Structures are given as structure tokens and as C-alpha cells.
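Quick start: what a row looks like.
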Amino acid sequence: MEGATQLREPREFATFWAENPKELTAHLNRLADGGGDVSRTLHELRQANVPLNVVHVNVAIKAARKNWQKALQVLSEVAGWRVDPDVISFNSAISACRKAWPSAVALLESMRANRVVATEVSYSSAINACSDAWEVAIELLKAMEEEALQPYVVACGAAINACARAGQSITARQILEEMEMKQLQANEIAFNSAISACEKAGDWEEAVVLLLRMYQKRLSTDTVSHNAVISAFEKAGEWQRAVLQLQVMSNEKVTPDAISHNALISACARAGKWEAALGVFASRLRVGGADAHSLTAALSALAVAGLWGQALALLEEAELGSLSPSCAAYNAAMGACDVAGQWQRALLLLASMPRQQIQADRISRLTAVSTCGQASQWQLALALQRTADGASSAAAAASACGSASQWTRALAIFHALPEASLDAVCYGAVIRACEVPRKWGLAVALVEEMRSKAIRVNEICISAAVAASRDAWCAALALLQLAPSEAGFGAAIRACQESTQWVAALGLFADFRKEIGQDSLAIATLTMSSCAQADQWQQVLSLAELLSQDEVGYEAAEIGTSLSVALAECELRHTVV
């Protein structure tokens, strides 16, 4: 063999390989194991007129398993080499397409054209490639049964994994149930994927049920199983359950990893339990288990609470210590400044990122624009918006302009956006800009434009449009019908109050109780005020009496305060008159 590889004359080279196909196969396998380019070698052999067989081709396809384009290229060239691909050829090519599901499905379809019968392995490999296309994965699973092929654990597990990535928990659980009906024993991987699907869907109850089923089936739970459950608790704000689950892991001798603790910190942060989040972070820091994700989760907890001082202190401590804050950590600290209205601090953080060799991302710039906007720093918001891409930053800048009564600038930003990027957030920002200057005509027009484009008109948009229509109470009432909410009713009653339409205000109060299905002292107080301004003191007393009889059980002092304010308005009107 060694002598053969030393042959230099093409004729001798071709003759040797032609007479020793098995030796050629062994040579190609060694070349593949060493990371060599097998497909190029096949081309050279064909140029030397060396006959190739399907085994040689399969070695080349298998060698290209990390390069699906090359695998497809080899498969497409075999016809010119007078080689008929077999099921192994197609299966290897499909496996190579694990990150290119359209090509994997196309190969599965082309097997029929080449009169090659697809096997369970063929379908399983294709389903595995469809990890980002769960609906296609389910269809392939059904096609296996139509082809009288028995879906086995690997195929079902791959389909469940595809559902997990898309958060399709119901479908994932259905596949598990069908496996039991067909007496297929789901393994730990299948169950872990199903639990992950529940986690992404925020369905913590079902995640726990699946974990209990693993115990019942005597399957081994691992870190992946428990982490998915903890993450499910996190998304649901069930931080106490997350703490207990971590204890369960220790009891079962399953060692929690960084993901476990980070999910717990995030669970505490989401529930507003920043003290607990910092406690977990500090304990991890003491044992050297904290990482950049832990830091970001802890800072996020402080951001939710608006504790900007502690967030900056923690960030500084991390920079001086062994932790290297990421862009996400800086974004969380900026978020704390945003919540607390500390726009100057937020901008200082943004400016300091390059010095720490951290590249600001879209969220960094969006947070800066939002912070300036909330502080009515519309000029700064506009300047920052020019450096930030996307509709979200534009909406934040438009909102900043709106807060400062710069509605024309807000409208200019809106009109400069591409049509495809206009959504409810963008429309809502401009509609809110119409509130202070009371541009109700523009607000109504924008709402109608949203409806014509089939963009959902949410409560925020309607409330802002109603508030802008305080000089046109009829328009306010019409808008309110599109998306009733407490804020919208409040704005509409104010519009009636300013137009002395006390009868309409009373009607709105009655509609609020009927449509929203609850009472609100704030809405009742607004209605009282509307009646008081129209000198309808009897109606004010009737509303107070209604509140005192309400099942909600308002405190007498609360009702008394609202009543006193309304009656004082009546008295003031008589005094003025």
C-alpha cells in the first residue's frame, strides 16, 4: 500500500486503484479520518479514469458531514461518475443538512425519484434537521406512518426537540403520549425536550408534571431536566418554587450548575425580589461560581426595582474584581437608571462602554433614547436616535418629543420610518404625542390608519387617542368602543367633564362597571367631578351612596374624600356665580 501511494505516473496510479477498489476505500477512509478533502480526491481519480463505486461516494459524503453544501455537491455529481446513490448516500447527505432543513426535506423527496426507499433513519435525520421548523417535523413524523414505517424513539425525540425550540408544549406532550400508546419508551432526552417546551411556553405546572412522570418511569433526571423546570418557574415569577427546586436537585445528588443559579437569580428578579437575587449572587461570588450571566441577572433585579445606585456600585465592583461585565450587564444597569429617571447616569454608562472595550448594541442605544425621552430631554433623544437603528428607538424618540409637546417632530420621525416597520408601538408613540396639544383629529386619523392596515389597536393607543380628544367628547366616546380600558374610560370622562357633558359621563361610568366588570374609585371620583362641574350635586350624592353600598368595600374615608372634593366644586361654582 505504501508503495502504491508513492506512484507518480497517472497510468500506474489509475491501474493500481482500479485493480484494488477495497484498498482505495481504505485509503479514502484514512483520508477522511485525517480531515482530508475526499471529494477533491474523487475528482482527481475520475480525471485519471479510475472507476468509482457507491462505497467511495459514501465515504466522501460522510467526510462532508460538517459541510452540507459539499455533501450535496458530491451527491449531485455521482450521475456523471456512473454511480447510483443508495440509501446510505442519501442518509449521510440528509444528516449533513442538519442545519439546512429545506435541503434535508428536498433530499428525502428526491429519494423516490432515484428509486431509493427511505428508511426510519432517513426520516429521523430529516426530522432532526427540522429543529427550527417544528410544523415540518410533525408532518414528517406523520409521513413515516403513512409509509408504514414505525416512528422510533430517535425520530420522536427529534420532533419533540423541534417543538421545544418553538415553545410548542402542547404538541410536544402529545408526541410523548402517542409514544406511550405505541409502547415506545421515551428516554431522558425526549422528556427533557418536552420539559424545555413547557419552559419556553411558561407552563410551569406541566413542566412539573413531566418531571414527576420521569420519576414514575424510573428515568434519571439530570441538570438539564431541573434547569428547565427552574426556568419555567422563572418565567412565571414563581421564585419560591425555583428556590425549592434547587434544593430538590441537591437532595437528589444532582449538582446545580451556573445555569441553575442564574435562572434562580432571574426568577427572583422577575418577581421583584431583588434582595433574594443579590443573596444568591453573593453566595455564588463567594465560591467563585458567579459569571457574567449571574452579574447581568443580579443587575436586572436591581433594574426592576429602580435601584440605580446599587446597580452602579455592583457594576463597579465587578469591574474591579474577577468578573468582566458584558454589554447585557451594562444594559441592565442603564435600565435601573431608566426606571429611576437618572438619564445623566444612563448616558455616562453608555459613554463608558468603549473604554471597557464593550460594544454598545441596539438595546443600549434604545435604553438611552427611552431614558432621555422619559425625562423630556427630547433634543438628546433625537440625537441618540440618529445613532440607533430600528423602529423601537424611533418610537422612543417620538414619545420623547410627544412628552415635550413636540408633536410635529414626533410625526416627522414616524413618517421617516419604512412602511414595513410601522407597528402598534410606533403608532402609539405618535398618538401619545397628540395628547398635550389636543390634536384629536390627527389621533383619530392614526387610529383609523392602524385599522385599515390590520394593525391591532391596543388599549394604550386608544387611551392616548381618547385623551387627545378632550375637546371632542363625541370622538372620545367613539374611540373608546374599540378597546375599552380603565385608562380609556378615565380619559373619556375627562373629555365629558371639560365639555360639561355630565349625562354622558354618568353613562360612561355605568358602561365601565358593565364592560370592565369592576369598580374603580378613581373612575367614580372623575364622574363625581364631572357632575359637580355641571352643578349636579344630587348626582354626586347618589354616586357616593352607590360606592358605600359596593361589594368592593371602599373605606368611608376614601369615599368621604371624593365626595368632599366634588361638593367643594359645587360650592365653588355657586360662590363664583
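That is the whole record. The CA atoms of residues 62 and 199 lie 36 Å apart. DSSP finds 35 helices and no strands in the chain.
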